[in-house]
Write a structure and sequence with these properties.
Number of strands: 20
Largest sheet: 14 strands, antiparallel, barrel
Strand order of the largest sheet: 2-3-4-5-6-7-8-11-12-14-15-18-19-20
Order of helices and strands: HEHEEEEEEEEEEEEEEEEEEE
Helix content: under 10%
Structural class: mainly beta
Radius of gyration: 24 Å
Mean pLDDT: 83
Length: 437
């Protein structure tokens, strides 16, 4: 593959993912209702989203300590000050949820956009800026159950309830990173946080005297968020060729004032019509304080290992919304990830398998939900592959993850999750060097 074909291939893949992501990041697309995600995303404003590159996902980490001046990441703004080239990246995931409780099983599939990000070095390896659009929480659920009520004649009326929802909280973020010296970098990223959530519930009765009842609600709101980052990198720790990098970030809590419009179906003049039940209902949705820290050790240019942790103070937040499920409560979230990389493409071997970067990792996530004294935790196992362009620093990263979430104890739901991710990172978009004649 020559240089032109390599750029064309990577650019074409990025363009396709960009178009898909631009549409999917609108989160409230009604066509996505048919295929749903995690059952636990029905609580509040949805389940927290891991907006990581496939490289980071395959290592089970957030990537705040991955000191790589030739690629980008969303989570540590200090990294943007170390960038050498302009970068553009996007990605998406395909996840399959196998859910079960003590009596039933179900299967759900979700195809979702991950993020869009552009970075530009104002001054190479000194000052860089980033602009991105990415989800923070995502609600994509469908929950069906049956029950019964007694009418005025004391007769039992069976009915079915079909509840579904899409949307969540997203961020449009612009920030910068600054390398103070060759060892220390800092960064700051303000963002517009906006909420868009659609929820619907339909009731179907087996008695013709009861009409089908539909209630729809749309919740919107916005506010501003602030993220701070630090990166420290030190060479020659145990040998002349090794180095270690430490990363840390802090995201301040956010309180979003929301407006909710509620629509319902009512029988008017013997016809079922949609009417406004309530409009501009006030409420609030809060995002917690978030702290991340971790380190990556590079014993050589061929291998590195990372250990990173996350804390989110969900116990101090509150959702004053109709989507809140009283059977669950919010609890502090802890996540710990351990991963490693092998850069086989740096060995200068002619073997086919030496053309890639290999990743593997695992992570434990305590979750932010608790019910019946049970934390809804998740255990992840992951692996990935990085395809490196031979003529630039552009990459295509693939990852596969398997997760176990929740439990069947106390009539809860356990999910087995298969997730496949792809992300494309293009570099040198602004730095094509003319050839000398």
């Amino acid at each position: 593959m020559n240089k032109l074909n390599s750029y064309t291939f990577f650019t074409a893949v990025f363009a396709l993912l960009f178009i898909f992501s631009s549409n999917a990041l609108a989160q409230s697309d009604e066509s996505s209702i048919g295929k749903s995600g995690s059952f636990y995303s029905l609580f509040g404003m949805g389940f927290p989203v891991e907006t990581n590159t496939s490289r980071e996902l395959s290592m089970g980490i957030s990537g705040i300590s991955l000191d790589n001046a030739q690629s980008n990441g969303l989570h540590n703004p200090a990294l943007w000050g170390t960038n050498t080239f302009s970068t553009a990246s996007t990605g998406f995931s395909l996840s399959k949820f196998l859910s079960e409780d003590n009596t039933t099983e179900s299967k759900n599939t979700a195809l979702q956009a991950g993020y869009l990000q552009l970075t530009f070095p104002v001054y190479r390896e000194k000052l860089g800026i980033s602009a991105s659009l990415h989800p923070v929480t995502r609600s994509n659920y469908r929950f069906f159950n049956t029950s019964s009520i007694l009418n005025e004649q004391n007769q039992t009326i069976d009915y079915a309830s079909d509840a579904y929802g899409t949307g969540g909280i997203s961020k449009f973020e612009i920030g910068f990173g600054w390398s103070i010296n060759k060892n220390i970098s800092v960064g700051y990223a303000p963002s517009l946080v906006f909420l868009s959530q659609n929820n619907s519930r339909e009731l179907f009765f087996d008695d013709g005297s009861f009409t089908t009842n539909v209630i729809d609600s749309k919740i919107t709101g916005s506010d501003f968020s602030h993220k701070f980052g630090l990166l420290a990198s030190f060479p020659t720790i145990f040998s002349d060729r090794d180095r270690v990098s430490f990363g840390a970030t802090a995201i301040l809590p956010v309180e979003i004032n929301t407006k909710e419009s509620i629509l319902g179906s009512r029988q008017v003049n013997n016809q079922v019509q949609e009417v406004t039940l309530d409009e501009n209902v006030g409420g609030k949705a809060e995002l917690p304080l978030e702290l991340n820290s971790g380190f990556t050790y590079y014993p050589s240019t061929l291998f590195n290992v990372s250990l990173e942790g996350k804390f989110q103070q969900w116990s101090e937040t509150n959702f004053n919304l109709n989507t809140t499920n009283d059977t669950f409560e919010l609890s502090d979230r802890y996540k710990l990830g351990l991963g490693a990389e092998y850069h086989a493409y740096r060995t200068n071997s002619n073997s086919f398998f030496s053309n890639f970067r290999y990743n593997a990792g695992m992570a434990y996530d305590s979750g932010h939900l608790k019910t019946a004294q049970e934390n809804i935790n998740t255990l992840w196992f992951s692996a990935g592959l990085g395809i490196i362009s031979p003529f630039s620093n552009s990459t295509i990263d693939l990852s596969a993850r398997y997760g176990l979430r929740g439990t069947t104890a106390n009539d809860l739901i356990q999910e087995r999750i298969w997730s496949f991710n792809i992300s494309v990172n293009l570099t040198e978009l602004m730095f094509f060097r003319p050839k000398l004649n």
